[in-house]
Amino acid sequence: DKPTLDLNSVTLFEMCIILKSIAYQQELMIIAIIHSPSPQLFNIFDDFMLLGKGGMIIYFADRLQNILIFMMLGVTFCGINTETITFGYEKVMYLRDMAAGIRTVLYFLAKVVTDIPQILLTSLMYSLALILFYAYQALFYKVYLIVLLCYMATWEKLGLAAKGLALVYGLILNDATSRLELVMSDNTYKFLRWL
């Protein structure tokens, strides 16, 4: 039951390859519960069983035999339909690998590459909204840069709606267009002067 618990993705993959070779040599059947397998790991298995509530068997056959049926029903697997959230579940594994001294560059690159389009498009959306609905007299690239930096600063902490509210508050309601001499002379801005 859950042999992959507390293993990083590399060790998990190697363990499953070893288990498969043992099963073939000994002519045994190995049944394993694996949550959110990677595409490479999903391709190792010969058969696939989908369990419903109460342990009821919904599907049991060759793993690729009727995969389109599941896709039509909206049942997706990490090996078939990856999203940005897929990497969110590996955060614990990433931290454990990093603490063990294992190279974590691939985790970082995968996370960044999948997040870049969403960050850029969301920043563009907020920039256009500010230009269309607020008489802000500045060049577009300056507005876009401010929005992009605000979005990236709140990326891990807040949801999309909260990011929008923080951005509107920061740019419009909190007088983000203050003059430089006001920032340098007012003590409320003393922690931000280095910016």
From TrEMBL:
The reply to whether Lipid biosynthesis figures as a keyword in the UniProt entry is no
- Superkingdom: Eukaryota
Domain annotation ABC-2 type transporter transmembrane: ranges:
43-153
Alphabetical GO CC annotations of the entry are: membrane
What InterPro entries does the record tag this protein with?
ABC2_TM, ABCG_transporters
Q: Where are the transmembrane segments?
A: 67-87, 116-136, 143-172
Keyword Transmembrane helix carried by entry: yes
Q: How does it sit in the membrane?
A: Multi-pass membrane protein
What's one GO MF term for it?
ABC-type transporter activity
Q: Supply the alphabetized keyword list.
A: Membrane, Transmembrane, Transmembrane helix, Transport
**Cell compartments where the protein resides:** Membrane
Quote the protein name from its UniProt record: 16790_t:CDS:1
Question: Per the UniProt entry, what species is this protein from, by scientific name?
Answer: Acaulospora morrowiae
